[in-house]
Every structure is written in C-alpha cells, then in structure tokens.
Write a structure and sequence with these properties.
The chain has 250 residues and is of the alpha+beta class. The chain has three domains: 59 residues, Structural Genomics Hypothetical 15.5 Kd Protein In mrcA-pckA Intergenic Region, Chain A, CATH 3.10.290; 72 residues, Pseudouridine synthase I, catalytic domain, N-terminal subdomain (Alpha-Beta Plaits), CATH 3.30.70; 77 residues, Alpha-L RNA-binding motif (Alpha-Beta Plaits, 2-Layer Sandwich). The protein has seven helices and 15 strands. The strands form three sheets. Strands 7, 8, 9, 10, 11, 12, 13, 14 and 15 form a nine-stranded mixed β-sheet that branches. Strands 3-2-5-6 form a four-stranded antiparallel β-sheet. α1 packs across α2. Bound molecules: uracil. Uracil (URA) binds next to α6.
C-alpha cells in the first residue's frame, strides 16, 4: 500500500531538515525523482516501498520511507530507551534516523545486559500487534544459569500459575528446553519486566547471561553481528505471526 504525501513534509519528517530547508534544497536541484530534478517542493509523492529507488537527496538514495521495520542484534551493555544515561540502542542507528517523525521505537525491550534479536519500527500498529498479550507471540531466550537445573523447572513453567515476586497475576505457561545442566532455552509469550530472570529467580536460580534468538518463527540471522541491524523483508515480518510459532510455549 502506498500513501501520497507532500515531498517537503516527508523529507522533514524523515530528519533531512526543516520544511524550509527542504524547499531550498529542491530549488537548488538537490532532490531528483526518477533521475530528473524535482521542481516543486510541495509535490505529492507516493510513499511506497520503491520510493528509495526513485528519489535521491543530494545524489544519495532516500532513507527507508516511513513504515520501516528493522531487526537488530542488540549487544550487551546498550539500553532500550530514548533517554536513559549510557549507550542507547538508537545510537546504533544513523543520526538522521533518530530525528524521524513518527519516531523509530523498539518493539518491547531487552534488558541492558540481554543480547539478541530486537525489532524496531515506526509503525505503531505493527508494534502493538507484536507486543499485544492477545497475539501471544512467542519469544525464545537462551539462558546461562549460575546453578544446574534441578529437573522440576520444565513442569512448573509449563503448568503456568507461577507468581513472580511483586506480581499478583500468575505467568502464562512457558516452555523450558534444557541444553546442558546450566543452560536452557525458555520460550515465553508474555513480555513482563525482567520476566526470564525473575522466573529463574523464582526457582532459586540466577541468570548469568541471557540472549534472545527468536520471535515467533523469526530467528536472529547468524550473519547479523552484535550491534548491526537491517531492514526486514515482508516474509520476515510475516514469520513473527506464523501459525504455530506461538503455540509452542503455551
Ligand atoms: N526477560 C528478561 O529477564 N530480560 C529480558 O531482557 C527479556 C526477557
């Protein structure tokens, strides 16, 4: 689906500068569409997926237009916040992208000390579909534990009903898949604060390292290095909601 928008407003909202600056740029011939200089800054353009192939700003491809969805390999030590102290995930994106309106936000959060698959988007509807408890999108985490599993955790987590410290509602059923005495995958369908760490704390253990490798049926690509991100394809976005991807934890 494409939406027609005023060019100067589009570019200003994408962080290229003020509307006035965009009008100046057009006057100077700094914006081309299909190879020809744009003449009027308030012309309507179709904001479709192909716009970056057609529109050049100062000779460079247009940034991904609104409706972008990114996957990032979040490294340990960066925070999912727009304003915390320390290094923020948004600082891993190009400067201009941080000035966009609507803003690019993380889809849920990973703790500062958690690494792995993190989605970012400026599409509020998509964001809410992914984090909505009703959609039950499964998130899989690889946890390294301070103490060996005692063998009872899988049944306890699968049954649901565990009440975490500070909560009054029990956690939904979750799937524990041990890999070794001190390592396991845990797949959850909720997104509670520090959920995985608190679930292991509730059974007397402690998470030493945590990494998310899957959301729905979407896996963190092995070639996406920590700190790197890329645009997602429509197939990858659909994989988040693939049938069966959520039920495994329920
Ligand atoms: N659970 C946690 O404890 N931390 C995360 O970052 C995500 C899930």
């Amino acid at each position: 689906m494409s939406v027609a928008t005023r060019l100067d407003r589009l570019l200003a909202n994408m962080g290229y500068g003020s509307r006035r600056e965009m009008q100046q740029l057009v006057k100077q011939g700094g914006v081309t569409l299909d190879g020809a200089p744009v003449k009027v800054a308030d012309m309507k353009v179709d904001v479709g997926l192909d716009l970056s192939d057609r529109l050049k700003i100062r000779g460079a491809r247009l940034d991904p237009p609104p409706g972008l969805v990114l996957m990032m390999h979040k490294p340990v030590g960066v925070t999912c916040s727009h304003k915390d102290a320390g290094v923020l995930v948004y600082s891993l994106l190009p400067n201009r992208w941080r000035a966009r309106e609507p803003a690019i936000s993380t889809v849920g959060r990973l703790d500062k000390e958690t690494s792995g698959l993190l989605l970012l988007t400026d599409d509020g509807d998509l964001l809410h579909r992914i984090i909505s408890p009703r959609k039950q999108v499964a998130k899989r985490y690889l946890a390294r534990l301070a103490r060996p599993l005692d063998g009872g955790e899988a049944a306890l987590f699968a049954a649901g009903g565990l009440i975490l410290e500070g909560d009054d509602k029990p956690v939904a059923p979750a799937l524990l898949e041990p890999i070794s005495p001190n390592q396991a995958y845990l797949t959850v369908t909720e997104g509670r604060y520090h959920q995985v760490r608190r679930m292991f704390a509730a059974v007397g253990n402690h998470v030493e390292a945590l990494h998310r490798d899957r959301i729905g049926a979407l896996e963190l690509p092995t070639d996406l290095e920590p700190g790197r991100y890329r645009l997602m394809t429509p197939d990858e976005i659909n994989a988040i909601f693939a049938p069966g991807a959520s039920e495994s934890a329920a």
